[in-house]
Structure formats: structure tokens, C-alpha cells
Design a protein that fits this description.
The complex is a heterodimer. Chain A is mainly alpha-helical. Chain A contains 17 helices and eight strands. Chain A has a two-stranded antiparallel ribbon with strand order 1-3. A two-stranded antiparallel sheet of chain A has the order 2-8. Classes of the chains: A mainly alpha, B mainly beta.
Chain lengths: ~525, ~1000
């Protein structure tokens, strides 16, 4: 092999270096293959409706989850007792029942976060829509403002003194300050009155689950009904007028009470605002697993194990008349499979010489008794009737497809009746409205209307729909002693604490008095 | 012609020994002088030997001269001297003057980034591990070869799952989670541990671990977690006209069994509890789901060389099963390393190619948790005594409808989980040396890794991950493909004069990594026979995003780097390096980062006579390295379809929401590290060691933070905010205590001390996160929302928190220290925020490894002890199932006997957090070597018997006391170490019998 000359060697070196391909040697941009970035999303005006949805889908977690508003914990209707090692969960359900809230409670923070996510989403969408040109966004923005007012109604009802936030375009270190309950009340009222003329009066499938004129009137009605609680100044007349506005729409009670809670209640004439849960497309509702006893999953063909948690207190079971059809929403007694075989609980409490009272009265066969022996620590596995108001759907898996009414017409009739009664209006009309609701349930009509029986009727009609707590506060009975609540609660527990983690993150927030 | 015949005979694999008739021939006399190659001085006492046992010969005299009578037919003489490289010189004349090169040891090199450096000149903390120090026995992953052998490198795996990766931590934790894995470089190809898994351990020639930043900074933004450089075996060019050929064949058989079982209640113990249910059988569920495992390995390697070319080809097969039923693997791997010189030795081409095919079988790991509470009186299969239609529905396995109660054997048998992986790695390097001392190389490598997974749960399976009690059959298939290209150009120049030498290097690197995933799911099959091979026939396709999915991403990394080293007077060393890296993963405001490093060393022994100390080098270094974000595109705003659809006008439509905010300032994580050390050699280079002290600060650590909404559209954003501080001490020593023809003993010891990793910062006023984060949620059943790990600014990482258990009162209530208003500070419900205190730390304080090898004649004995101290573990099984209340139809842990009087619970407390210090005899082997010096074919045969994990001494009651570096239930989050989750694979003990024969 010849010796190569120096110049040739240098040429080789240069060739190698040129192998770089100078242009691409510092290029760093990479295309995004599997995700949408902001510039692509709002390009297409058809995409707007997809952005809208998130403000509503947020409601699924708020209502359907076991910690959800719908489950009336901490009242005289539903309860989650501690059954031995199960459902103790750090004592949170026990504290909830006895109204011994701590600012560090997980569910206190959870509701705050979900509701404020809803508020923020509405604010973001309003901000984004208002910056679009050539599109009339008034109907969309009005709907969003009404939805935001609904979120604020929950905030004023549960937490009371919360920050009012409407602006999305704030500085990075902005931390909102607490507004008083009165200020929040005024804000909600003003918002709803302002957007009312722009809201659609259409009902039916296109507006199912969305804020229309009637849903907004319903929020207004709720606001006015509880005005004495929120602001110390009652507004029964205004509440009555709001109910009248709703009654101008073509709502009516369904013939069968349970139609409103079935798999598809989207055509129910009684719904004012609802959620169409679906185990595949809108999965969040878990009442079936939450309430049923462990050994009932195969009876209903569920694809997941039941948790044996949510139970119905004895007092409300007893308040139903025998013939009241609504009592069928409380699952009780011995349970059988379709072929007649009794359902059995093999882990029932057997005789234990150390604690002879802790024994299941009828042994292995599953018998859901209305009587609950105790709240804690050793509630019997089979004690308590269960929430069957939402008819169980065969084949449900982790989530179920029952629909959930946030607001329905029966409530409007009861509210109108209550408003009349409290403001000294037509008692006869009030009585007939309540009896309309009772007649649908095949219960004997009332002969007279008192605060006691009206509150009880609201419980019988609206249990497991998330209204009980604010009803009990309005009637002034939340703080009383009752089953497994030996002490009268201090008055400050009528408001939930501001969550501890929120106060730590934002020093401008003020904790509610008493916590 | 001769060569061909030799080849043929070798391939017949004969074990016949042939004696060579030695004919006593004529003698002749050889004389000469032996001198030192570097100083030119004559060497006294050099051994000049010949003969089959090298026992005949003479030593050089005071003038370095020798005179020797040898047989006429002798072809070569051997010259050896302590501290110098032994040489075999062919006899070509009567006068042979030999020049010996100082020290194998002194000439040793280590691989540093993009080159090699003489060990004596190294000024950073680099550890080299050679095959004589590798761990022996049942080694199936290359990283296991150095487990416990390198100070500062912690390698752990809690159990013996053959398909699970080891966790590798170099000098502690330096990131929150982006990339705790070190950079792995195999023959220049840069990749991750996944690439290393396809390398066969028998192909590894050496490991070089770049421990500190001054060594690793040359790799810039990939180097914060350390760099492990692996060199595979290759042929060596032969001097002169010799041609060599070697063939080696190894085989081994391993038997593996469970070392420690979960401490569950036996049938008799369980029946003591009043709420137990007796099904009248006795079943040891641990035995039902485990088995004795067998593995085998075979390798064949051929290596050859001439003056201009060298090659090594190897084929490896390893396969076997694991100690838990339904786990197993089978791997076939082939590798060729080929080098060719040309253009008058000016050009060298190195070509490497390896292909690996691996089949894996996995077990449903939930079963390992169900074992802790399944009724020990229940039979595995429903017998006629307990039979009922319910069990018969579910494949005949005993089943009952009860809370969290699933037959573990059924769960394992009724789930099929398979994987198939292929990995091809190829590289070509061309090096040109146009002038002596100047080398220019061009390197291109490609790694293609394809993984295919198929899972199927039977129609008769009562428990499946998707649903309980459904007769549908569930199938899922997914692929993960990874393509990694690297192109690098480097130029090197070195020059040495009498007292000064220097070495400069510069280069450019371009890397692109592409990931492609695809998955499909179906449920409702006509027959179990399809398993996952007929997804199209599924009757129910979940109409949300679980049915089908695909994903692709790509990232580019470009770097410019340079390094210069100087040596003065053979005792003063200085090195500096610089790298500038840019990545598409960084935000547009911060695309390029700089990573400099500098280090210096001074060998006292070169200037001062220190007696028996041959080298005492003091060194110090400082460097800055970086870490990449965990995935691409994190700096961009992202929208995502919500899981919940919006009901609009009678239909469900997709709802989109922003889930991540843009962060154009996103950049790499930075680690600044300072290291001081001493490298020493003593006793004629028989004892070597080093001591290091390091301190590092990792800042700009990436974490996904919750940010206020408004003004941000989404509530999550990746921000470089965190800061960690780390420091430690390392000590390693290796001592060839004794070495002669008859017997020898070498011992190595290493010790690593980890001072607390302190979390300096994790918040700022712009994010909503707290200075205190709670992690380690124990989860359902019973403990949803119970957090067990505390991460707090200003405090060490790894704190395990728990309430303090006090005792049981007269009514059987469990009592804890409580700070609310109670009498004497004791209550039954401790509060997560007020009553939980730090009771242990999941990270270790120090580790040590001690290995010894002895040889006596042809016998060799080797054993290695490893210990890890100072860490604690939270035994989740004990926490959940350690009180009588949770029993019923379910059973519980042996610990329930200690709490037999308790009437409430379960409550998590400090009782469940135990110290997990341990020492284990990692391996012990016995070997015997047969030599065949007179044979033309077989050169030697080695037989060995080795045991692994023969014993472990520990106070921990759980299955394995190894450190858990991350929370396996939470993406291996490194901020939550120390939780021994229920699905831990069992620790094993194994015995291996092997033989290797070389030709």
C-alpha cells in the first residue's frame, strides 16, 4: 500500500467533517404527533361546543361520587356506619354524621375544588368566547353565567363566605379574598336577573342537562327560599314568584315516581336540570356499589363488588306509610335471587363470648333490617335499608347509568307550598300542592300542613338527591340531637369550614368562625 | 490448510486429551539484558522462564543480564516482573534483549467519555470493574454483575422476578422523578436500562462507572444520574504474523426457590379467632402460588484475530421460569464485534451488531397480595364438601362472594400475560489516524426495540382487573416501539514530551429518539381459546378511549463537546471539559445549556519517597451535569379529551379541556457536584483503593405543579423549581493479599455512606403547592387517603410518618398518642396532620460489600457479602391485615396474633414501620479448573457450583428487606421510598451448576 501524501490525508479529514450536513446540525424542532395544542384547537369554530362540555361534565363528580352532594350524609336520612374494620376511613363518616367537621377533611376540600373548577371553567370559557370576533356569543355567555351562578349557589349554601371570582385575566400571583355570605348572595341574584332575558325557554332533549330559563329560575327559587338563612332577611314572596315562573313551563309529575331515576330519564317531564350518567360515556355514578351489601353484586349482575356503605336511617323508613310507593326506594328485608334462593352473607357476625351483643339476629341469610344497631364501631353488616331509589341496572360495572335529577318539578311544588305557608299566603293552595306530590306516591293526603310534616314530606320525596342538609337548616333542626348524635351541635356547623389546604395556599382567605 | 483442519477438529467438540510426546532434544544458550521501557534502566530479578509449568528458568542479575540453557525446540521465553507487563518473546536468535513495560497496573486504562485515560492520570471518581470481580452464579442481567461491587452505586431489586428491572442509584437521589436511571453506554451506543437488558452478561468485558460530575459532564444533559460505560468482549489485534483463534462454550443450570414466605396465619392460628370461618381444609397459599424454578444458560463465543482484523461472535441462550407460577422467560441473543484496519493502519473500522429475541411470561401480581388474606382452611379447588354452584361457575376454583376475597391460585392460573421483545443494536465507527497522535472518528449507531404485550383473562375468572364476576373474557394487546439513532464525530490529538503531555478531544453529537405505542382492547369472547389473538371477535368494545389508542413522540438532542488533559512531571494532572447541549424537549426560551467541568490531581508518591506506598494521588473535581425532562412536549399547552362525555342534544359528545399550560422557560435540571478523593496503591501495587467525599446540589428540578386557575387555563404545569442536596463518603480497597503458583487470596471491600438527601426547595410563591407534600397513600381497603410519606422543605427525603401506638385499653380499643383534647394525650383516632410523626426513613444510611476470592491449586472459592443499613420499610400487609377485626371469611397476617385482644382497627401506626437493615451472603462459589496445557485443542475446563442469597440476616418481618427506592403503586415516585407494597415478588435463593470450556 502506497504511503498517502499529507494533502490527501487532510482531504480525508475534511471529507469526514463535511459528513455533518451543516443545516441539520443544530435543528431542534419536533412536531407533536398525538396531542392538540392551543393554536390548533380554537382554529375551528365547530370546536366551541366541545370546549363547553367541560363546565357541565364537572357536575358528574360533584353529584355521583360517594362523597357527592347527592348522598345526604350528615342528616337524618342517610348514614355510613362503621361496620367493624370497614368504613372507618379515619373516622370521617362518623364526624360527618355528628357534624364534627375538621378543616382538614378530605371531602371538605374535594367539594371546594370541584365547585371552583366549575367556576373557573365558566370564567375561562366566557373570557375565551368574548374574545372571539364575528360571533354572537350572548346566548353562550349567558348560559355560562347562569351555570356559574348555580356553582355559587352551592358555595353560598355550604361554605357561606367565599371569594367571588369572575375575571379570568389576572396576575400570576393573584390570590382572591373572601367575600361575605351577603355579598355572594347579592352576586348570585344579580347575575341571574341579568342573564334571565337571554336564556332559552326551550325544554326537551336539546336543553337536557343545560342551564335554560327554568333551571335559572330554579336556582333563584332556591336562593330566595333560603334567603333568611343566607342573609337573615326572608324572601318568601320572591321565592313564590320564581316558582310561578317555573310553573309556566310545561312541567308535570311523572306517573311513576321511579321513572325519574332510571337509566334514561332524559324525556321525563319532571326534570328541570339533570345529569345523564352513563357507565361508558359519562361514568361517575356509583350509588349501586356504595349502598348495596357485598353479597348482592351477583343478584343484580354487577361486574364489580359492592361496598356495603350507604344506609338509610330507621327514622325515615318509619316515616313512610305502608302504602307509600316511595318506600320501595328503600331496599329492605330478606333478599333472594331470581330463582328464589336466599342470598347469604357467609361472614355474618357469629356468637362471640367476649361481646355477646355483637351478633347478627338472624344469621347468614341476608336480611336488611330497617333498625341499625349503632353508628360505630360495630354496626352489623346487614343493618339498615339501602338506597334503591335509582333502580339497579343489570350488568352495571364500576359505574351505573341511572340518570340523576339535580332539580325536578316535585320540589317546585313543595317549595311553592312552603313559601305560601311561611308568608301567610293561601294555605289551601299549599295543601293541595303537597297532596299532588303525595297522590303520585299513593300516600294518603294530608289534612293539614305543619312545618313538621312539610319537612318530613320533603325528606320522603327528595331523599338521596342532595337537598336534605339545606332543608334541615332552613327548618332550624340540623343542630338538634337525633339518632347517634347525642349532643346539640354548635351553630357554626351550619357552615362548612373553608378547607385547610386552601387557607394555607391563600392567606387572603378567612376561616369561618368557630373552626 | 492447517488452519482449516484445526477448525474442523475444534467444531467436533471432542474432549479427548492428546499427549504430546516430548522429545528430549539438543540444548542451546540464550543471553540478554532486560530494561524498563520508560526509564531505560536495567531491571534486577526479572523471571526468565519456560516449560509447560513455567517452572524452569533463571532471574536477571544485578546488571539486568541473564544467561539460560534451553532445549533446541523451544519457541518462546517468558519474562515476568512484579509491576510490569509479562511478555512472551519468540526465540529468534541467541541474544534476546527485552524491554518491559511498567505495570499492567500502571498501564491500565479506564474508559472515560469518548476515549480512554490511563488510570494513574485520572482526576475524577471513576470505578472500573473487571471480570474477576464480577458477581457469579445466577446472573441474568448485566447490571447484576456489579451489584454491591462499586462504592456509591446502589443496585437493588426486592425479589427474584426475572422480568423486573433493577433499580440503579449512583450517589443517591438527584432528581424528583424525571430520570433516576443512569445513562448506559454500550460500546459507544447511548441508551437506557432497557437496552442493557438485551445484553448478555457473558459478553461483558468491563464496566466503567463515571460517578462524579467532573467525569460525567462530557455527556452534558444526560449525565446527572451518573454514567455506566460497558465494554463488550472483542478480539485483540495480534502483533506480528500470528493468527489466533479462541472458542469458548459455557453452560449452566440453576435451581431457584423462595427464600422467605409472607408471614400469614396458619390454619390453626386463624381458627383461634372468633369470627373465623372454617372450610375444613388446610392450604398453604404461599406454596400454591410458588414453585421451584429452573433456569439454564448456554453460550458459545468464538474469537479470532490477525494483525489487521479481529472479531468476536457469540450466541447466547438463557431461559427458565420464576419462583412464582406463570413467570418465565426465554432469550436468544447473538452478537458480532468486528474490527478491521486498513490504509496502512491509518483507518480502523469497528462494526458491532447484536440482536436479541426475548419471550416473557408474567404473573398477575395482585395474587401476591391476595395471599396475605385468603382463608387457610379453604381448599384450592371446590371439593364436594364445600361445592356450590358459585365455585363451579368460576372454573372449579374455590370462590366466595365477599369483600376483597379472591382465590390467589385462580387469579394466577386464569390470567395470561405474555410479552415478546426484540432489540437490535448496530453501530459502525470509522477512525482515521492521518498523523501519529491525531485520531478522527465518525460513529453512527441505531437501536430498534420492539415490545409486544398480550394479556387475556378467562371467561371463568372471578377476579379480573376490569371487573369482578363477569363471564366475558378480557383481552388486550399493545406494542411499544423505540427507535434511537446516534451520530457522533470526534477528533483527538495527543502528544507527550519528557515532562509534559497533553490530550485534547472535541466533537459533535446528534441523537434522535422516537417512541411509538399502540394498543387495542376487547371484551366478551366466545371462547377462551383465542386468548388475545382474535380481538376483532370481541362482542363488547368499550366505547371510550379504552378500546383503541396510539401514540407517538420524538425528541432530538444535539451536543458540542471538548476536553483537554495535561500531565506534568508524571505526577501532576489537570483535566477540563465543556459540553453545550440543546434539546427539543426544552422550552423555546431555554433550548441550549452549558455543562463545564474541571478536575486536578497530584501524585505525592512521584515526588516524595513514601516507602511501601506506590501511589498516593490526591484529586479534586467540580462539574455541572444535567437531566432531561421525563417526556417530550412538556413545555407546550395541551388539551385532552375528558373521560366524561357531555350529553348534548341526545348524544354524548367529547368534552375537551386544557390539561397543561405552556411553559416556554422549561429547561434541564442542573446538578453541581464537587468531589475530593485519594487514589492509592501500596505494597508493590498489590493493594489499591480510593476514598471519596462528594457534595452535590441538584436544582431546577422538574415537577408537575398545581398552579392557580385563573390566570392559567389549566391547573397543571411543569416547572423547574425544586432543589435537592446530597453528600456522601465512599471507600473502596482491593488487596491481592497473596499470590503464588500454589494459592492466592484477593479481597475487596467497599463502603458507601449516604448522608441525608435534603429537600431544599419545592415551592415558590407562583404555585399552589405546599412546602409540605404527603405521599404514599396506602389505598383501599381500609386506608384510602392515609398518607405515609412526608416531603417537606428543609427536611430529608424519605421520611416515613405514622402515629405512635400506645397500647390496648380494657375494652380492646387500640390507643395512640393524640394531640387533640383527650385525657393524658391518648386516643383512638390519630389525625393525619397533627398526630403523625417521623418514624423512619426509606433511604439507606450506608452500604457495604465485601468480596473474597481464594484459589488453591486449581480450586477457587469466592464469596461476597453485601449489607445495607439505616433504612426502614412500611409493611403494608401487616398494616392492613394485622388485627382480628378484618377477619371473617378472610384471614390475616401472623401479626394479628400480637393484637388478638384488639376489637377495632385496622389503624396504621409505627408498629408497621420496621427497620430493615440487612446483611446477605449474595454469592458463594466453588470452582475447579482442569488445565490441558499439552493439548492442541482444549485449553481448559472450568466447573463451578455457586449459591446465591444463601442467607440474609435481618430484623425485618416482611418478604424482602431490600430498599424500595420508589413507590411501585405511584409510578415509582422516588420521593416516596420505603413502602413494601403487597405485590412484591418473593426473594429467592438459587444454586447454579456450571461448566465452561475453552479451546
Amino acid at each position: 500500500m502506497k504511503r498517502l501524501s499529507v494533502s490527501f490525508k487532510i482531504a480525508l479529514v475534511v471529507l469526514l467533517i463535511l459528513g455533518l450536513g451543516a443545516q441539520s446540525c443544530t435543528k431542534l424542532e419536533e412536531p407533536v404527533y398525538s396531542e392538540l395544542t392551543a393554536d390548533k384547537f380554537f382554529e375551528d369554530p365547530d370546536n366551541l361546543i366541545y370546549a363547553f362540555g367541560v363546565a357541565y361534565t364537572n357536575l358528574y363528580q360533584l353529584m355521583g361520587h360517594k362523597y357527592g352532594i347527592g348522598f345526604d350524609a350528615g342528616t337524618d336520612i342517610l348514614v355510613v356506619p362503621q361496620r367493624g374494620g370497614d368504613w372507618f376511613d379515619g373516622g370521617e363518616w362518623i364526624r360527618w354524621h355528628r357534624l364534627e367537621y375538621r378543616p382538614s377533611e378530605a371531602y371538605v376540600n374535594r367539594w371546594w375544588n370541584i365547585i371552583y373548577y366549575g367556576v373557573n371553567t365558566c370564567n375561562r370559557l366566557i373570557f375565551q368566547f368574548e374574545s372571539l370576533e364575528d360571533v354572537d356569543v350572548t346566548p353562550a355567555v349567558s348560559e355560562l353565567r347562569a351555570l356559574r351562578a348555580l356553582y355559587y349557589w352551592w358555595l353560598v349554601d355550604i361554605y357561606g363566605n367565599v371569594p367571588i371570582q369572575t375575571d379570568f385575566n389576572v396576575a400570576p400571583d393573584f390570590k382572591p379574598s373572601t367575600n361575605t355570605r351577603q355579598e355572594v348572595y347579592d352576586f348570585i341574584e344579580q347575575e341571574l336577573l341579568e342573564v334571565m332575558p337571554h336564556l332559552s325557554k326551550e325544554t326537551g332533549l336539546a336543553y337536557f342537562g343545560r342551564m335554560n330559563y327554568y333551571a335559572a329560575q330554579m336556582v333563584l327559587a332556591k336562593l330566595y327560599m333560603n334567603a333568611e338563612v343566607y342573609t337573615a332577611v326572608p324572601q318568601w314572596e320572591k321565592a313564590s314568584k320564581a316558582c310561578d315562573s317555573i310553573m309556566t313551563g310545561n312541567f308535570s309529575l311523572t306517573g311513576d315516581f321511579f321513572t325519574n331515576f332510571e337509566e334514561d330519564a332524559t324525556t321525563s317531564p319532571e326534570y328541570i336540570l339533570g345529569i345523564a350518567f352513563d357507565q361508558v360515556n359519562a361514568p361517575a355514578f356509583e350509588v349501586h356499589l356504595f349502598t348495596l351489601h357485598y353479597n348482592l353484586s351477583s343478584k343484580y349482575g354487577f361486574e364489580d363488588n359492592c361496598w356495603n356503605g350507604l344506609s338509610v336511617q330507621e327514622s325515615i323508613y318509619n316515616s313512610f306509610e305502608e302504602q307509600d310507593l316511595r318506600r320501595n326506594g328503600l331496599l329492605e328485608g330478606f333478599q333472594y335471587l331470581d330463582d328464589g334462593t336466599p342470598v347469604v352473607d357467609p361472614s355474618y357476625e357469629k356468637f362471640n363470648v367476649e361481646d355477646p351483643t355483637y351478633i347478627d339476629p338472624d344469621g347468614a341469610p341476608l336480611n336488611l333490617t330497617p333498625a341499625i344497631n349503632m353508628l360505630e364501631p360495630k354496626c352489623l353488616r346487614q343493618a339498615g335499608t339501602r338506597v334503591a331509589k335509582f333502580p339497579f341496572i343489570e350488568g352495571s360495572d364500576r359505574y351505573t347509568s341511572n340518570d340523576f335529577p339535580i332539580f325536578r318539578y316535585a320540589d317546585v311544588l313543595l317549595m311553592k307550598a312552603e313559601a305560601l305557608m311561611r308568608s301567610g299566603g293561601d294555605i289551601g293552595l299549599a295543601l293541595s300542592l303537597v297532596n299532588e306530590v303525595r297522590a303520585r306516591a299513593n300516600a294518603t293526603p294530608f289534612t293539614e300542613l305543619t312545618y313538621e310534616n312539610l319537612l318530613a314530606e320533603r325528606g320522603r320525596e327528595l331523599y338521596a338527591e342532595g337537598h336534605r342538609r339545606s332543608d334541615m337548616i332552613r327548618f332550624g333542626v340540623l343542630l338538634d340531637t337525633r339518632w347517634e348524635k347525642p349532643d346539640v351541635s354548635p351553630s357554626y356547623v351550619e357552615l362548612w369550614p373553608i378547607p385547610e389546604s386552601q387557607i394555607q395556599a391563600n392567606p387572603n382567605l378567612i376561616q369561618n368562625t368557630g373552626y | 490448510m492447517l488452519k482449516k483442519i484445526r477448525f474442523l477438529k475444534v467444531f467436533l467438540l471432542t474432549f479427548l486429551l492428546f499427549g504430546i510426546v516430548q522429545m528430549y532434544a539438543q540444548q542451546k544458550t540464550i543471553t540478554g539484558v532486560v530494561t524498563d521501557a520508560e526509564t531505560g534502566e536495567t531491571l534486577i530479578g526479572v523471571n526468565v522462564t519456560f516449560g509447560s509449568d513455567m517452572g524452569r528458568g533463571i532471574v536477571t542479575d544485578l546488571d539486568g543480564k541473564y544467561q539460560l540453557s534451553i532445549p533446541d525446540t523451544l519457541s518462546s521465553l517468558r519474562f515476568s516482573y512484579v509491576g510490569y507487563t509479562t511478555q512472551l518473546i519468540p526465540i529468534t536468535s541467541d541474544v534476546i534483549d527485552v524491554v518491559l513495560q511498567p505495570g499492567e497496573i500502571l498501564q491500565e486504562v479506564v474508559v472515560v467519555g469518548y476515549g480512554t485515560q490511563k488510570t494513574k492520570e485520572v482526576t475524577s471518581a471513576i470505578a472500573r470493574v473487571k471480570p474477576e470481580d464480577f458477581n457469579q452464579g445466577n446472573v441474568n442481567n448485566p447490571i447484576q454483575l456489579i451489584q454491591g461491587r462499586v462504592a456509591g452505586v446502589s443496585i437493588s431489586k426486592p425479589g427474584g422476578d426475572p422480568n423486573q428491572d433493577f433499580t440503579v442509584r449512583i450517589r443517591g437521589l438527584s432528581t424528583f422523578g424525571s430520570n433516576t436511571q443512569p445513562l448506559i453506554i454500550i460500546d459507544g451506543v447511548q441508551g437506557t436500562q432497557a437496552m442493557m437488558n438485551s445484553l448478555d452478561p457473558d459478553d461483558v468485558a468491563s464496566f466503567d462507572v463515571l460517578k462524579d460530575a467532573s467525569a460525567a459532564a462530557i455527556y452534558g444533559t444526560k449525565a446527572s444520574s451518573g454514567v455506566i460505560i460497558i465494554t463488550t468482549k472483542r478480539g485483540k489485534f495480534e502483533a506480528g504474523d500470528k493468527k489466533t483463534f479462541n472458542l469458548e462454550f459455557n453452560a449452566s443450570l440453576t435451581s431457584e426457590s423462595v427464600a422467605k414466605k409472607i408471614d400469614v396465619l396458619t390454619a390453626d392460628e386463624y381458627l383461634q379467632f372468633s369470627n373465623s370461618t372454617n372450610y375444613n381444609n388446610t392450604t398453604d397459599w404461599m406454596d400454591e402460588i410458588t414453585q421451584n424454578a429452573f433456569q439454564q444458560t448456554y453460550n458459545l463465543a468464538a474469537q479470532g484475530a490477525t494483525k489487521n482484523s479481529s472479531y468476536r461472535i457469540s450466541f447466547n441462550y438463557r431461559g427458565g421460569n420464576g419462583v412464582v407460577r406463570s413467570t418465565g422467560y426465554e432469550q436468544l441473543n447473538g452478537r458480532i464485534n468486528f474490527s478491521q484496519k486498513g490504509l496502512n493502519d491509518m483507518l480502523t473500522l469497528d462494526f458491532n451488531f447484536s440482536g436479541t429475541l426475548r419471550k416473557e411470561e408474567y404473573t398477575q401480581s395482585e395474587a401476591l397480595g391476595f395471599v396475605a388474606r385468603y382463608n387457610p382452611t379453604a381448599p384450592v379447588m371446590a371439593t364436594t364438601d364445600s361445592v356450590d354452584s358459585f365455585s363451579q361457575e368460576w372454573g372449579g376454583y374455590f370462590q366466595r362472594e365477599a369483600f376483597s376475597f379472591y382465590n390467589p391460585r385462580a387469579v394466577i392460573d386464569q390470567g395470561t400475560l405474555d410479552g415478546q421483545k426484540s432489540n437490535i443494536v448496530g453501530s459502525l465507527k470509522a477512525t482515521l489516524e492521518p498523523i501519529k497522535g491525531l485520531k478522527i472518528s465518525s460513529f453512527y449507531s441505531v437501536e430498534q426495540r420492539d415490545e409486544l404485550f398480550g394479556t387475556y383473562w378467562s371467561k371463568e375468572a372471578y377476579w379480573t382487573p376490569y371487573a369482578v364476576g363477569s363471564h366475558k373474557g378480557f383481552a388486550r394487546m399493545s406494542t411499544e416501539d423505540h427507535f434511537n439513532q446516534l451520530f457522533e464525530i470526534t477528533g483527538r490529538y495527543e502528544k507527550k514530551w519528557e515532562h509534559i503531555g497533553f490530550n485534547v478531544m472535541g466533537g459533535y453529537s446528534w441523537q434522535q429518539v422516537t417512541n411509538d405505542n399502540f394498543w387495542a382492547y376487547g371484551e366478551g369472547f366466545l371462547s377462551d381459546g383465542f386468548t388475545y389473538n382474535n380481538l376483532g371477535s370481541a362482542s363488547v368494545k368499550k366505547a371510550n378511549k379504552e378500546t383503541l389508542g396510539s401514540y407517538k413522540d420524538q425528541a432530538t438532542l444535539i451536543g458540542f463537546f471538548a476536553r483537554a488533559s495535561f500531565t506534568f512531571l508524571d505526577g501532576i494532572y489537570l483535566t477540563g471539559s465543556f459540553r453545550r447541549d440543546g434539546s427539543s424537549m426544552f422550552g423555546e426560551n431555554n433550548q441550549w445549556g452549558n455543562f463545564p467541568a474541571v478536575s486536578a490531581g497530584f501524585d505525592l508518591a512521584k515526588f516524595v519517597d513514601l516507602g511501601f506506598v506506590n501511589q498516593l494521588k490526591f484529586r479534586g473535581g467540580y462539574g455541572i451535569t444535567g437531566n432531561l425532562p421525563p417526556e417530550p412536549y412538556l413545555s407546550q399547552e395541551r388539551f385532552q379529551v375528558s373521560n366524561e362525555m357531555f350529553f348534548y342534544n341526545g348524544e354524548y359528545i367529547q368534552a375537551y379541556a386544557p390539561v397543561r399550560n405552556a411553559n416556554p422557560d422549561l429547561k434541564w435540571e442542573t446538578k453541581q457536584e464537587m468531589d475530593f478523593g485519594v487514589d492509592f496503591y501500596m505494597l508493590d501495587y498489590k493493594l489499591s483503593g480510593s476514598i471519596d467525599y462528594y457534595q452535590s446540589t441538584s436544582s431546577d428540578l422538574l415537577l408537575e405543579y398545581t398552579v392557580p386557575v385563573p390566570p392559567n387555563p389549566a391547573d397543571r404545569m411543569w416547572i423547574n423549581l425544586g432543589e435537592l442536596k446530597n453528600s456522601g463518603l465512599e471507600f473502596a480497597v482491593s488487596w491481592k493479599v497473596f499470590e503464588n503458583k500454589k494459592w492466592g487470596w484477593t479481597t475487596n471491600f467497599n463502603f458507601s455512606k449516604y448522608f441525608d438527601t435534603k429537600l431544599v426547595k419545592i415551592t415558590s410563591e407562583f404555585v399552589d403547592s405546599d412546602a409540605t407534600i404527603y405521599l404514599g397513600d396506602l389505598g383501599a381497603p381500609f386506608f384510602t387517603g392515609i398518607q405515609t410519606i412526608l416531603v417537606e422543605e428543609g427536611q430529608p427525603i424519605g421520611q416515613i410518618i405514622a402515629p405512635i401506638y400506645v397500647g390496648i385499653d380494657s375494652t380492646g380499643q387500640l390507643l395512640y398518642q393524640v394531640s387533640g383534647d383527650t385525657i393524658d394525650g391518648v386516643g383512638t383516632t390519630p389525625d393525619q396532620y397533627d398526630d403523625y410523626h417521623t418514624v423512619g426513613n426509606g433511604l439507606p444510611d450506608f452500604e457495604l460489600g465485601w468480596g473474597n476470592s481464594f484459589y488453591i491449586g486449581n480450586f477457587s472459592i469466592n464469596f461476597f457479602l453485601r449489607g445495607v443499613f439505616g433504612h426502614s420499610l412500611l409493611n403494608v400487609n401487616n398494616a392492613r391485615y394485622g388485627v382480628p377485626v378484618v377477619m371473617g371469611i378472610q384471614s390475616g397476617m401472623g401479626q394479628a396474633l400480637d393484637f388478638i385482644d384488639a376489637t377495632n382497627g385496622p389503624v396504621y401506626s409505627n408498629v408497621h414501620v420496621e427497620k430493615a437493615d440487612f446483611v446477605s451472603l449474595d454469592n458463594f462459589s466453588l470452582g475447579y479448573r482442569f488445565d490441558f496445557p499439552n493439548s492442541n485443542y482444549v485449553s481448559n475446563l472450568n466447573i463451578y457450583l455457586s449459591g446465591q442469597n444463601l442467607f440474609t440476616i435481618t430484623g425485618y418481618s416482611g418478604v424482602s428487606p431490600e430498599v424500595r427506592y420508589g413507590d411501585t403503586y405511584n409510578n415509582n415516585n422516588p420521593l416516596a421510598p420505603g413502602i413494601d407494597r403487597e405485590n412484591t415478588y418473593f426473594r429467592t435463593r438459587s444454586f447454579t451448576l456450571g461448566a465452561s470450556i475453552s479451546f
